[in-house]
Amino acid sequence: MKTGEEKCLVSDEHYSWRPSFSADGKKVVYLSSRRDTNQDGQIDYQDNPGVYIFDLETNQEKIVLPDFYKTKYPSFSPDGEKILFAAWRAEATHCGIYLLDWVKRELKTIGNEFYDNNFPSFSPDGTKIVYTSWRSDTNNDGRISFHDNTAIYLYDLKEENEYQIVPDVFDNLFPVFSPDGRYIAYVSYHRDTNRDGKIDSLDNPGIYLYDLGTRREKLVVSDEHYNKFPIFTFDSKGLVYIGSWRGKKDEERNFFENKGIYLIETTSKNEQQIVSDKYYGCREVATSPIDCKIAYISWHKKSNRGLYLADLKNLPTLPELEKIIEENL
User: What is the pTM for the complete model shown?
Assistant: First the structure.
């Protein structure tokens, strides 16, 4: 960041993704597929990944979990001693959530293994884990699957017990803690926004806040438009998320195209477009833990995916924005 130079940490010889920093910024945990585990003749995201740690001080890579599992969403605990992840183990029929002490090589199961659990996230103090879980046949098709609604659960590591905080009356996804530990943000599908006679993942979800003190939820972003992947700003006062204000029923788009980045203040509900959904597609937004910057992947129809940095407090002026668009279209 100081020199503006780019550095390759892991060679593109392998299929690597989902990097996440440790809280002290000294290590990165990520997934990397390096064997053709599904034997389809190629190595890609469909193969089982190993979980790796790259030490930014020693420039050394270390595998901490082999590719025996179908692993997703790795992240460090706040103290950096453990790695939280979701995975399908070879002998398991459900996706579970696990906590790996990567120094002692001890693996702990989080939550109930009899159900599918996903999207785990640590509380800032490292004492709790929030995640989603599918536990009811809400669509009445005779089985419990990812087509049903999911509830949100909280696991207390000190008590070694879990609690449901948001029921599966609606489908709730992508829960994340606020940096101050007071709130959990998530998306939830409450209405048949596309008017096809059912409420499912093809509808627009709203973004909700659950107050851990009052145990109440409130809507902060309407489901009038597409919204997904909320994440808090460093001061817990705002939510950054992927969305589209250009939803028209007669427009056919690739799912990943025409998604912009938006910021909403959780108290005033002032909403601001950070990256336009008219020209660009955006994914995988990460907020800085110390200031108002965000990093994200973005592209337009004629480009590959690039990694970008934006300052939420110092957005381009209209003339600067026109120049950026002109140079990149």
Answer: 0.86
Closest to 100 in 3D by CA, of 46, 52, 59:
52
3-state secondary structure 50-65: EEEEEECCCCEEEEEE
Q: Could you tell me which of 280, 284, 279 has the C-alpha nearest to residue 295? A: 284
Please tell me the total number of residues recorded for the chain in this structure: 329
What is residue 297's three-state secondary structure? strand
- pLDDT, tens digit (0-9, with 9 covering 90-100), for 121-139: 999 999 999 999 999 999 9
Assign domain 1-110 to its CATH superfamily.
TolB, C-terminal domain (2.120.10.30)
Alpha carbon distance 189, 191 (integer Å): 6
Max Cα–Cα distance, the chain, nearest Å: 58
How many Cβ atoms sit within 10 Å of the Cβ of residue 128? 21
Rounded CA separation 237/217 (Å):
16
Residue 249 has pLDDT above 60, yes or no: no
Whole-number Å distance between alpha carbons of 66 and 73: 15
CA distance 10 to 61: 8
pLDDT in tens, 263-276: 999 888 888 888 77
Helix, strand, or coil here: 249? Answer: coil
Give the C-alpha separation, 260 to 243, whole Å. Answer: 5
Task: Say yes or no to pLDDT of 234 above 80.
Answer: yes
What is d(CA 80, CA 76) in angstroms, rounded to the nearest whole number? 5
In angstroms, the CA 295 to CA 161 distance is 35
Q: How confident is the model at residue 213 (pLDDT cuts 50, 70, 90)?
A: very high
Comparing 18-32, 139-153, 182-196, which segment has the lowest mean pLDDT? Answer: 18-32
Name which of 68, 82, 73, 81 is nearest 132 in CA terms. 73
Burial string for 86-122 (b: 16+ CB within 10 Å, else e) reads bbbbeeeebbbbbbbebeeeeeeebbbbebbbbbbbb
